[in-house]
Amino acid sequence: MTSSTTFQPVLERIAEEIERTPGRGRPADYIPALAACDPRSFGMAVAEPDGTVYGVGEWRRPFSAQSITKVFTLALVLAREGDALWEHVGREPSGNPFNSLVQLEYENGIPRNPFINAGALVVTDRLHTRTSDASGELLSFLRAESGNQDLTFDKEVAASEAGHGDRNAALGHFMASYGNIDNPVPVLLDQYFRQCSIAASCADLALATAFLARHGIRADGTRLLTLSQAKQINAIMLTCGTYDAAGDFAYRVGLPGKSGVGGGIIAVVPGRCTLCVWSPGLDERGNSVAGVAALDRFTTLTGLSVF
C-alpha cells in the first residue's frame, strides 16, 4: 500500500467532512492580523520522512505560526544543552492558562514546561545566549528544513504582539528576579515576539517538523537530536502541546502535537509522517476547532497513532 494511495484520499475526505461542519470557533482577537482571518479557512498537509508532501485546501497559504515555533526552539536548545536545560524549565503539564503567573511563584521562577509562555521565554533566552540571535537561528532552521527560503517574520504581527506584551514582560521580569533569565528582558521579548511572528504554510511546517518523525535526523541527513531527545520532545508535545487541553487532545487524536493561536497545529507519527493543519477559528483554550477535528479524523481513518 503506497502513501500516494492512502494519504491524499484521506486528506480529501477530511476536507469534505470539515467543510460540512458548522461552528468553527473564533480567531484570536488580540492580534489584529489574526482577528481578520476567516474562521472557515482550512488547509492540511502530511509530510513523509523522505520529504514527500501531500495537501488539501489552503495548505500552501502562509499563516502565523505563533506557539508552534516553540517546538523548534526547544529542539535547537536541547541539541546544544542536553539535560542541563531541564534545570531551568520543567516537563509537566501546567493545568493553567498558557500565560499564567500563578505557578511561577509557587515554583520559584521555574516554568512548568517549555510550551507555556513562561517556559518558552526561558528556552528562547537560552537559545539567544548560545547564538546571539535566537529568532534568526530559528528562521534559518525552518528555511532549511522546509526547503522554503522565503519564510520570514511578519512585522505587523510582531508589532501587535509587542503592543499587547505586558503579561509576557511580567513573566520575563518575574523569572529574571529568580535568576532564570540571562538576557535583558526587553531583548528577550523582542526575540520572542519575532519568533512567534514567523509566517509559514501547512506544507512548510509539516516538512520542518519531519525531523521528529525521523527520530532526530534533519532534512540534509545530519543528526540534530539523539533518539532519546527526539522521544523527549514528542512526549512533551503529547502531554503539554495544546495548552490546558492536552489530555483531551491525547484522548481524541493520540499523537504528539503543538498548537498555536494562529490556528495551526503540528502533529507527529514517529517513523511514519508529520502533519500540519490550519484553520483560524479557536476554541476557548486557544486550539483550532477544525484543526483538532481534522487530526481526530486522520488518526481514526488511518489507524495511525502512538497508542
Tell me about this structure.
The chain is of the alpha+beta class. Helix content is 46%, strand content 10%. The protein has 14 helices and 8 strands. The chain has helices at 7-19, 32-35, 69-81, 102-106, 117-131, 134-146, 155-163, 166-177, 185-196, 202-208, 210-213, 227-240, 246-252, 289-302; strands at 43-47, 53-57, 63-64, 152-153, 198-200, 257-259, 264-269, 273-278. A 5-stranded antiparallel β-sheet has the order 2-1-8-7-6. A 3-stranded antiparallel β-sheet has the order 3-5-4. α3 packs across α6 (134-146), α3 (69-81) runs antiparallel to α12 and α6 (134-146) crosses α10. The chain is globular and about 55 Å long. The two termini are 22 Å apart. The mean pLDDT is 95.
Question: Secondary-structure element order, as H and E?
Answer: HHEEEHHHHEHHHEHHHHEEEH
Give a quick account of the main beta sheet: strands, pairing sense, barrel closure: 5 strands, antiparallel
Q: Overall 3D geometry?
A: globular
- In DSSP terms, counting alpha (H) and pi (I) runs of 4 or more, how many helices? 14
Q: Helical content, roughly?
A: 40-55%
Radius of gyration: 18 Å
Mean pLDDT: 95
Q: What is the distance, rounded to the nearest whole angstrom, between the alpha carbons of the first and last residues?
A: 22 Å
Instruction: Find the structural class using helix and strand composition.
Output: alpha+beta
Task: Characterize the quaternary organization of these chains.
Answer: single chain
